[in-house]
Amino acid sequence: MRHPWKHVLGMGLGSVVVNQLVKWDTQLQVDLNKMLDKAKAADERRYFDEDED
User: Fold this and answer.
1) Following DSSP, what letter does each residue of 1-53 receive, concatenated?
2) Cα 28 to chain center, whole Å?
3) 52 versus 9: which is more confidently predicted?
4) What is the pLDDT of residues 13-52, one digit of tens each?
5) Rounded distance between C-alpha atoms, residue 33 and residue 46, angstroms
6) Is 17 exposed, middle or buried (0-12, 13-18, 19+ CB in 10 A)?
7) Rounded to 5 degrees, what angle do the CA atoms 45, 42, 32 make?
8) Residue 48 CA from chain centroid, whole number
9) Is the overall model pTM greater than 0.70, yes or no?
10) Are 10 and 17 spatial neighbours (Cβ–Cβ below 8 Å)?
């Protein structure tokens, strides 16, 4: 192995990228669940509250 520091640098950058990807995916799931809950609540208000009139 001619330049072992390249391997260390590559592994470090790879771990940073993967950690950021995991954080992004987790935040995406949280945001998606919030959006789906809001859409479900809006649909329930739209369709079920009209019947009470």
Assistant:
1) ---HHHHHHHHHHHHHHHHHHHHHHHHHHHHHHHHHHHHHHHHHHHHHTGGG-
2) 2
3) 9
4) 999 999 999 999 999 999 999 999 999 999 988 888 766 6
5) 20
6) exposed
7) 155
8) 31
9) no
10) no
